[in-house]
Model the fold of this input.
Amino acid sequence: MRRPPGPRPASRPRPTPLTRRLRSPLAALALLAPALLGALGPDGSGETIPLSGSEPGQHLDVTLTRVVDPADPGPAPADSGSGSDRLVAVQFRLENTGTAVYQDSPAKSSHLLDSEGQRFTGSNTTTAAGPAFPETVSLAPGGSAFGFVTFRLPNHAALAAVQFALNSGLADDVGHWSLS
Done:
């Protein structure tokens, strides 16, 4: 059934060609090369992507607000890593637009992709960029939160994209922000 002509419903913004909602993590990796088309802001930030989880009522608007590369480990790093690694901090704004409570780990829900297709999972490591999300974030419907997710990657790695999916990164609906 076709929808009659007219404006799109205002409840869910339409993704732009620069940012795609991908239906599976494998599709995200398969589309990495064409996704490297450009960035929304100087650090790839700015667009809100509506995402759904695996359970009824799980809906979250996710905005990548800032990328800090490199991120200073701050006064007391939890894991110093090696001298050939760097930290990258990505700030998200999460808004629960669903009818169910959002209770999940933003770090486990986040991935950073480099230009060679390597995938890095986020952590709750604190950096000088700003406060990290707690291990678990709980948001009632209408609630929102800001926080950073930190990634450790090799110094030579070129940032390509950030991804976010509900259900600790396992939901089929994946938000994708191009960084290059």
